[in-house]
Each structure stands twice: as C-alpha cells, then as structure tokens.
Design a protein that fits this description.
Elements (H helix, E strand, L loop, with lengths): L2 H4 L7 E5 L4 H12 L3 E6 L2 H7 L5 E4 L17 E4 L16 H24 L6 E7 L10 E2 L9 H14 L7 E7 L1 E2 L7 H9 L12 E2 L1 E2 L1 H13 L5 E5 L5 E2 H12 L9 H8 L4 H4 L3 E2 L2 H5 L9 H9 L2
Parallel strand pairs: 1-2, 1-4, 2-3, 4-5, 5-7, 6-13, 7-11, 8-10
Antiparallel strand pairs: 9-12
C-alpha cells in the first residue's frame, strides 16, 4: 500500500509545482502523488494541465511574467517546486538560438523565478522549501575536469542564464526558506527531450560520435532524477546546488558506442562539429562541447543511484 492511499487530503502536505506538464514535471507529479502529497499545479493552461495530469488538488492559472491571484496559493504550502522554463533544445535538429529564442529562454527562467520568490515573500505562512530547476550548463563548456557543485560558473550564454536563474531562487534564503537548486544533466527519456533526437541517426544506421568525441555528457536516468528531487524535498539537509547527474559521465564517443550497442546498430560514422554549427548556429555547442559534472552533493546526502552505469540505464529505457 502506497503512502498516497493512507494519507488523507486533510493531512497531506501541499506542494506547488510549476512546469508540471513538461518531461520532468510529469514524472515528478506522479512521484508526488504516489507519496501522498497534495499537488497544486501552476500552469499557463490549467485545462490542458488538468487533462494531462488528472488528480491534482488545484489547477491555477500562472504566468511567468506577472504577479496575480496565483500568489495566494503559495501561502501555507509546504514547498514550491519550480520547473517552468522555455525549451532550450526543442527540435534540436532545426531550432536556432535567435535573439528572440534566447530572450525567451532567459526571461522565462529569471523573471518567472523572480515572481515565485516575490510571492513567497508576501506569504504569511511561507513554504519550508523551494526546489528550483537549473542545469549543469551552469559550469559552461569544460574539458575533462571533474566538476562538483563548488566549481566556478562558465561565461557562455547558458551558463549566464543558470547563474542569473539561481541567483533569483537564492533570494528566498533571505526569507527563511530552504533553497535547493537542482542542476540537471542530460535526462535520458526515449519519448521526449534530447535522447530521441540523438537516437534518430542510429535508427537509420548512420549513428556515431559528434566530433571531437572527447567531450563529456553528464547524463541521468529519469528514475534517479526524480529520486534526487524527492531527496531534496524531504531531506532538510538538502540546500544549495545539487548536481542531478549519474556518477559516471561519458565521453561522446563512449556514449555513442554504448547507444549503438544497446540499439544493435553501427556507431562508427562521425559527425563533424562544424556541420552542426552550420545548421544550428550557437545551439550546436550543446553537443559539440560538454561538462564532466559529478553528483557529489547527492551522494554526500546518501542518495544511492538505481542506474549508475549508462548501458544498464539505456537497456532499461529502450527495452520493449
């Protein structure tokens, strides 16, 4: 019997969640529901959220660029989990980072988080915790240097977005709220996100590494990403930045080799970085470069990974 079947709605802790209809949000919503939490979904389209994620206690109209009646729902909540943000790599084979796309990526995160923290500040009964999404892009594009949570930030576009994003979330600490900033790596999901796009050339037997191939991918299985979020929610020691990545980041060459082996397809055809830049512009840096982030904080808090190795993670996700 799950906790959700024995915890009544009157005693359940209220969790406000933004971005619940996204790839991560849907999985986290299911985990919260299973654990017996009462979820309050903030969404730009409450009716869509209701249809996609039935069973929440409330569906409230929310906008990242303005305050509104939604702020009242934060008063008395146990925690806020803030995931909302414009897609960074949606349609990675076609989308370029135009000035308008970059503005949407930045503003949806920085301004949206600013509004959430402002609402926390006006609440009479403030949440105990704010869990704010971020990314390992915080560290910029690095060589093979292992990166713990104390590593310095980068200076590229995504790094600066993460720095400003996290700074807005950190303001809640001055309000007496515990803040955890979850720096997520490449979440492996065969149905959505980046992995299906990485798999496309392998399906037509043209898969291979993106040159130079030595760049690191900091990846994570969805079960472990949700596990780290639940740890951050329920463990009062969890605060500050937390790298949500598996303990075994892989070079692009090894990642391609493992993916090809799991899919049963060749993985020898290299993709020149310059050709991706010709198609994608600046956004190509996401796959041409990388970072070797490590989950030092999560492991120090006692988190045990279900899928610490890439091949086992891919076999679980791609098994039919």
């Amino acid at each position: 019997m799950s906790r959700g079947t024995i915890m009544s709605m009157s005693t359940a802790k209220r969790i406000v969640i933004t971005g619940a209809t996204g790839v991560i949000g849907r999985k986290l919503f299911a985990a919260l529901t299973d654990r017996g939490y009462q979820t309050i979904i903030f969404s730009r389209s409450p009716e869509k959220a209701r249809a996609t994620l039935p069973g929440a206690a409330e569906y409230i109209q929310w906008s990242a660029d303005e305050s509104g009646p939604w702020a009242a729902a934060i008063d008395g909540a146990h925690a806020v989990i803030h995931l909302a943000g414009a897609p960074i790599a949606e349609g990675i084979l076609g989308q370029r980072w135009t000035p308008s796309v970059k503005a949407a990526i930045r503003n949806s995160r920085v301004i949206g988080t600013r509004g959430i923290v402002s609402a926390i500040g006006t609440a009479q009964s403030r949440p105990q915790a704010l869990l704010c999404a971020s990314g390992v892009g915080y560290y910029g594009f690095c060589d093979d240097t292992p990166l713990g949570e104390d590593a310095a930030p980068g200076d590229d576009f995504l790094a600066q977005v993460c720095v400003d994003w996290e700074a807005e979330a950190a303001r809640a600490e001055g309000l007496g709220v515990r803040v955890a900033r979850i720096r997520t790596g490449l979440m492996l999901d065969p149905e959505a996100g980046v992995l299906p796009q990485i798999m496309m050339p392998f399906k037509i037997f043209t898969g291979g590494p993106v040159l130079p191939g030595s760049q690191y991918y900091s990846w994570i299985h969805p079960a472990d990403l949700i596990g780290i979020y639940m740890l951050a929610l329920e463990d009062e020691r969890a605060s500050g930045p937390i790298n949500a990545v598996a303990p075994t980041p892989q070079t692009n060459r090894d990642f391609a080799s493992t993916l090809g082996r799991v899919m049963g397809t060749p993985s020898w055809l290299p993709v020149p970085g310059f050709s991706l830049r010709a198609i994608l512009g600046e956004m190509a840096d996401l796959v041409v470069y990388g970072q070797r982030a490590l989950p030092k904080r999560a492991q120090a808090l006692g988190y045990t990974f279900r899928y610490p190795q890439l091949e086992a993670a891919l076999r679980d996700l791609l098994s039919t």
